[in-house]
Specification:
Layout (H helix, E strand, L loop, with lengths): L2 H28 L3 H32 L2
Amino acid sequence: MHEGAEHHKNAAKHHTEAAKHHTEAAKHHDAGQHEKAAHHAHLAHAHGTHAAHHHEEAAKYYAAHHK
């Protein structure tokens, strides 16, 4: 698998992890466990940010290799 595809694969993994943490955050919020909800919301944001990084790296790869 070439580098661009790896970045897309890694972005998808981080999106999946972000979704899991969003679900956990909602569960804890509904239970009134706001500290735990905030923790999972923070993790969801971090995974989303990391996914965006992989999207950017994939775009750079394609720009450099598909002129």
